[in-house]
């Protein structure tokens, strides 16, 4: 398949799973934050130099591409693992070394634990201290599986390492623990203090006797349904349970179920998006010159106005060293006037509200320390750990130096400058059009 042939496939800019195929045979399955950007990256210039012979052979053998959209990166991660296990594609070679990858294991106990286990440990179960009741995987992206489980645990708190309480209420030891428990304002049915995860809401309270075996079993069923890739089924189950609890006038339980449904519908998986880069392609250790990955999205921002009038801002995108003009965006600034930093804050706030737009590897701003600090703080407040670089200009508005994240500057300087140049050109053009329009209206 060639880049020209790729153009006939109208891939969406949304999360999902993609399939490289030869006829009906699936050659490779992958997941993506943006299906369009990910698949396009396989056809970057210099592919033969930057990728191993495995991926080059896969692209040459592929005749078509298909895909399945998902509502979130989390859903794509789970779906990818299930499909790889089902189809065992030829070029998902990394996943075939099951001992090297991660599995999600639910233990066979009265209060099951939910654990991430390496294949090499899982295949030596006689030497371990638990028996599995369910195994999901393999998951080729260990870091992303850990981030995914953090998201799931906030929706369905579960036990991992804490030990359910077996201490009698009548014992003096339990009584002293009960007093300490009450001093913290926590309730306990057993007299045992909760583990740390219970105190921060990540464990439902099996360690302190607050959740019964049957109640916890229901939570485990929900987690198993989720990691089986049946998210729609899970939502329907939760809605049915919510109606039943409401009918029985168990309003607190109904409210908790409503929260879980809402959380599943609005999964905040920024942590997965920011780690969803080209590291999960086949031959992911094959990099371009200087050890740099060939897949790269850079977003640059610039503000333009005349004495505070007709203030506008723009976002430009450079992907794999090339301007991606269909992703450029214009913003009419509503609040800042003659305040460049204020305008930058507004445009970043509006950009971050678009969770459907894929996050970049680096954010680039035009300005100096003030703009750099403003952008960095905006991202920090949003819980996004992505590097920020500012392009400082001289009196002729030419790049003088780059400040900000040193690693990003070293690795991506050329793309940063290209994105900034595009942002400046696009912002000036947009501002001039608005000024011209206002002149005609006078």
Please tell me about this protein's structure.
The longest helix has 36 residues. The strands form three sheets. Strands 7, 8, 9, 10, 11, 12 and 13 form a seven-stranded mixed beta sheet that branches. About 11% of the residues have low confidence. With 442 residues, the chain is an alpha+beta fold. The chain has 16 helices and 13 strands. Among the domains are: 85 residues, GIY-YIG endonuclease (3-Layer(aba) Sandwich), CATH 3.40.1440.10; 146 residues, UvrC, RNAse H endonuclease domain (Nucleotidyltransferase, domain 5), CATH 3.30.420. α11 packs antiparallel against α12 and α14 runs parallel beside α15.
Secondary structure elements and their pairing?
Layout: H1 3-6, E1 16-22, E2 25-32, H2 35-41, H3 47-50, H4 53-61, E3 64-69, H5 73-87, E4 102-107, E5 114-118, H6 119-122, E6 132-139, H7 142-155, H8 172-183, H9 196-199, H10 213-227, H11 231-247, H12 251-265, H13 270-275, E7 297-306, E8 309-319, E9 322-323, E10 329-332, H14 340-352, E11 362-366, H15 369-381, E12 388-393, E13 399-404, H16 406-441
Parallel strand pairs: 7-11, 11-12
Antiparallel strand pairs: 1-2, 1-3, 4-5, 4-6, 7-8, 8-9, 8-10, 12-13
Please sum up the structure shown.
This protein has helices at residues 3-6, 35-41, 47-50, 53-61, 73-87, 119-122, 142-155, 172-183, 196-199, 213-227, 231-247, 251-265, 270-275, 340-352, 369-381, 406-441; strands spanning 16-22, 25-32, 64-69, 102-107, 114-118, 132-139, 297-306, 309-319, 322-323, 329-332, 362-366, 388-393, 399-404.
């Amino acid at each position: 398949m060639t880049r020209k042939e790729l153009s006939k496939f109208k891939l969406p800019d949304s999360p999902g799973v993609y399939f490289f195929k030869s006829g009906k045979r699936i050659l490779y399955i992958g997941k993506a934050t943006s299906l369009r950007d990910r698949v396009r990256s396989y056809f970057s210039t210099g592919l033969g130099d930057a990728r191993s012979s495995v991926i080059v052979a896969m692209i040459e053998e592929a005749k078509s591409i298909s895909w399945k959209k998902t509502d979130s990166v989390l859903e794509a991660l789970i779906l990818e693992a299930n499909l790889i296990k089902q189809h065992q594609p030829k070029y998902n070679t990394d996943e075939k070394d099951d001992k090297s990858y991660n599995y999600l294991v639910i233990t066979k106990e009265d209060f099951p634990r939910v654990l991430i286990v390496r294949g090499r440990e899982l295949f030596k179960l006689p030497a371990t201290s638990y028996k599995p009741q369910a195994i999901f995987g393999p998951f080729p992206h260990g870091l992303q599986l850990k981030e995914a489980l953090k998201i799931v645990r906030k929706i369905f708190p579960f036990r991992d390492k804490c030990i359910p309480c077996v201490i009698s209420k009548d014992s003096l030891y339990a009584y002293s623990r009960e007093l300490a428990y009450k001093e913290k304002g926590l309730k306990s049915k057993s007299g045992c203090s909760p583990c740390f995860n219970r105190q921060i809401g990540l464990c439902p309270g099996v360690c302190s006797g607050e959740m019964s075996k049957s109640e916890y079993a229901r939570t485990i069923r929900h987690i198993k349904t989720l990691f089986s890739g049946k998210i729609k089924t899970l939502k329907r189950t939760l809605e049915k349970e919510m109606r039943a609890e409401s009918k029985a006038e168990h309003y607190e339980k109904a409210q908790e179920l409503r929260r879980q449904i809402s959380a599943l519908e609005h999964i905040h998986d920024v942590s997965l998006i920011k780690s969803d880069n080209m590291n999960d392609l086949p031959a992911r250790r094959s990099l371009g010159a200087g050890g740099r990955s060939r897949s790269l999205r850079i977003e640059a921002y610039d503000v333009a106005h005349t004495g505070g009038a007709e203030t506008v801002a723009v976002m430009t995108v450079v992907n794999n060293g090339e301007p991606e003009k269909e992703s450029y965006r214009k913003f009419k600034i509503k609040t800042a006037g003659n305040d460049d930093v204020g305008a930058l804050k507004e445009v970043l706030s509006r950009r971050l509200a678009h969770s459907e737009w894929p996050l970049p590897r680096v954010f680039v701003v035009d300005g100096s320390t003030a703009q750099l600090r403003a952008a960095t703080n905006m991202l920090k407040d949003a819980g996004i750990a992505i590097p920020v670089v500012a392009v400082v200009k001289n009196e002729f508005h030419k790049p003088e130096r780059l400040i900000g994240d040193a690693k990003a500057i070293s690795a991506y300087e050329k793309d940063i400058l290209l994105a900034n140049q595009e942002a400046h050109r696009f912002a000036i053009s947009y501002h001039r059009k608005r000024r011209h329009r206002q002149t005609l209206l006078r």
